[in-house]
Amino acid sequence: MSKATDVTHASGAPEPVGNYPHARRVGNLLFLSGIGPRVRGSKAIPGVELSATGEVVKRDIEAQCHSVFHNVRQVLEEAGSSWDRLVDVTVFLTHMADDFATYNRIYAEYFRDDPPCRTTVEIKSLPTPISIELKCIATLPDDSDNVGGEGSDRESGRAAR
């Protein structure tokens, strides 16, 4: 069983919608749970306008893409990794035909050089009224790269540097 210090609950990323951490470290790999574009501390979703009954009346995939990339970056950094250490990204889109071109263009802006492996899948829905979610794997620096080594506090998201 993993130690509690192998788990990251990122204070800058939106709260999970279930019982799971934002990320878990295994060796020098960091596995992120599905991360969406929601805003921490609220139910707000950039680019989504809901009716009084909770139906999506307007959605902006560009705003959601920028927000989800921001949230992934938050988790990576709080777990002691970084954007350039991403090695694999699985992208879930709920409207592939409508959104792929925009998402692909924005993705290319964020990953100009040496992009990670990527898989994009269309799905029917996600747990909240979002149109995109990312599932990522990144590497972590060797313990010798960290000043605190094993003493880092990944649970609170503060990695030793």
Condensed summary:
With 161 residues, the chain is of the alpha+beta class.
Note down, in words, how this protein is organized.
This protein has two helices and eight strands. It has a single domain (4-151), classed as 60s Ribosomal Protein L30, Chain: A (2-Layer Sandwich). The strands form two sheets. It has a six-stranded mixed β-sheet with strand order 1-2-3-8-6-7. It is an alpha+beta fold and 161 residues long. The radius of gyration is 16 Å and the shape is globular. A hairpin with a 5-residue loop joins strand 4 (48-50) and strand 5 (56-59).
Radius of gyration, in angstroms, nearest whole number: 16 Å
The general outline is: globular
Q: CATH first level: which class?
A: Alpha Beta
Helix content: 10-25%
Largest sheet: 6 strands, mixed
Q: How many domains, in number, for the residues?
A: 1
| Fraction in beta strands | 15-25%
Count the E strands.
Answer: 8
The CATH architecture name reads 2-Layer Sandwich
The CATH superfamily bears the name RutC-like
Provide the descriptors you would attach to this structure in a database record:
161 residues; alpha+beta; 60s Ribosomal Protein L30, Chain: A; two-stranded antiparallel sheet; 2 helices; globular; disordered C terminus
